[in-house]
Amino acid sequence: MKMKNATSVWAIAVVLSLSTSPVLGWIDFHDGQIHDIDYQTIDHIRVDYLTPGMQTTVNLLDGGRIISDLFAYENSYINILGGAIDWDLYAWDNSHVNFSGGSIGLYLFAEDSSHIDISGGSIGHSLSSSGNSQVDISGGSIGDSVLALFDQSKIQIFGCDFSIDGIAVGYGELTSIFGGSYNDEPMRHLTGTLASGELINSVFYIGHDAKITLVPEPATLLLLGLATVMVRKRR
């Protein structure tokens, strides 16, 4: 009888625990206005979901924390200026993301024809780019993040001193080796210095017709331009 009572008490405790656990819901912004998040929420956030043409803007600020995911749709604008997204940020359709501060705990996804500009902040795990999306990286703590590209997506990385698997490569385009799925591509390793002065040290995979373009930072580009002018003058 004592064993039965103990089991019953344990079962009741589990039910009570489940009943008091927070349930993730949805917060929708789709009114064409500007919304600042400087507070904490456990809910998923969707911006312009199934509401094209609204161009709603959401700013994640210092003190803001999304303990789940943020989803950007259509022509919405997302500015990550501070704060934290614990899980993932998804950019779909023609959404625009400006990532200059704060952090993304796990994944950053650029899909369809979205555009993401990364000049600061940090990504915890990986950056994935697909469709006709474009990602521009000039700064931020990319750290050991994995870069995975496929379809016709593009990633531009602005900086200097780039090397692939320890071999200096200068500037230009990096493309798929086999032309199929990025899952079938060999793992390659990119290191270098971003335009902001932060280091990049990432494993990357490129599938299909996607490409990574290594672009000189403005100061290096200016020096290259001056060198070209000097050569022409000598000729």
Write a structural description:
By secondary structure, this protein is of the alpha/beta class. It has one domain (23-234). It is built from 2 helices and 24 strands. The chain has a 19-stranded mixed β-sheet that branches. A 5-stranded parallel β-sheet has the order 3-6-9-12-15, with no helix packed on it. The longest helix is centred in the first third of the chain and has 19 residues, at 2-20. The relative contact order is 0.10.
Keywords:
235 residues; alpha/beta; disordered N terminus; 5-stranded parallel beta sheet
Quick description:
With 235 residues, this protein is of the alpha/beta class. The protein has helices spanning 2-20, 218-234; strands spanning 26-29, 34-37, 40-41, 44-47, 57-60, 65-66, 70-72, 77-80, 84-85, 89-91, 96-99, 103-104, 107-110, 115-118, 122-123, 126-129, 134-137, 146-149, 154-164, 167-168, 172-175, 188-194, 199-206, 211-216.
